[in-house]
Write a structure and sequence with these properties.
about 35% helix, four-stranded antiparallel sheet, alpha+beta, TadE-like domain-containing protein, 3 helices, about 210 residues, 7 strands, elongated, single chain
């Protein structure tokens, strides 16, 4: 037996289905759900990065100011002042950037102009503006060699300029496809230690 549906009935049914919007919202929401979630997660991750960056920079500024005075006091233990600075920095930053790993570089300079520059030429015999064997220079780290980076490792002494550079690998707040599990934040600051004593004058070396 063959069932035949009148054409007018079929047309009315199709028109009715075309006008029926029940369940359309669910289908539309399913289409935008994934992009929306990715945007929300990405926004939260960016906000967390900014917050962790701010916390790290603030902690570094506070710790650096404390270490600039004579006989600074830290609650952290350490075999040296540099070790105590690192411990205090991690303790303060870890409140926000939990389970982070840190790389801390501390160098001291004679003055601010030395940060990122070579040791200072005292005598430039051929006046070419750069060091040549036989020229004289201020040996800031007292290693007997002209260094392209003038700083010496550590906090240094009274009236020295200390440059702190910190990088921290921080786990992401939420896992995001296609991105690494950690993100890198950095902080740096430079300040002069209080002149509680006369600044040491570096020796002049001619080699």
């Amino acid at each position: 037996m063959q069932l035949t549906i009148p054409l007018d009935t079929a047309a009315r049914t199709l028109r009715s289905l075309a006008r029926d919007q029940r369940g359309a919202a669910i289908a539309e929401f399913a289409l935008i759900l994934m992009p929306m979630l990715i945007m929300i997660m990405g926004g939260m991750d960016l906000a967390y990065q900014a917050y962790a960056q701010s916390a790290l920079q603030g902690a570094l500024n506070d710790v650096a100011r404390t270490s600039s005075i004579e006989g600074p006091s830290f609650t952290c233990e350490g075999a040296s002042l540099e070790a105590k600075v690192g411990c205090a920095l991690r303790a303060r930053s870890d409140i926000v950037a939990r389970h982070a790993t840190y790389s801390i570089t501390i160098k001291s300079y004679q003055d601010f102009s030395g940060v990122g520059n070579s040791e200072l030429l005292v005598t430039d015999y051929n006046s070419n503006g750069r060091y040549d064997p036989g020229d004289c220079f201020a040996d800031l780290n007292e290693n007997g060699v002209f260094d392209q980076q003038a700083g010496k490792t550590g906090i240094g002494g009274a009236d020295d300029v200390v440059f702190y550079e910190v990088s921290a690998s921080v786990p992401r707040l939420l896992p995001l496809p296609g991105l690494s599990a950690n993100h890198l934040i950095r902080a740096e600051t430079a300040l002069r230690s209080q002149p509680y004593s006369r600044q040491k004058v570096p020796p002049t070396v001619c080699v």
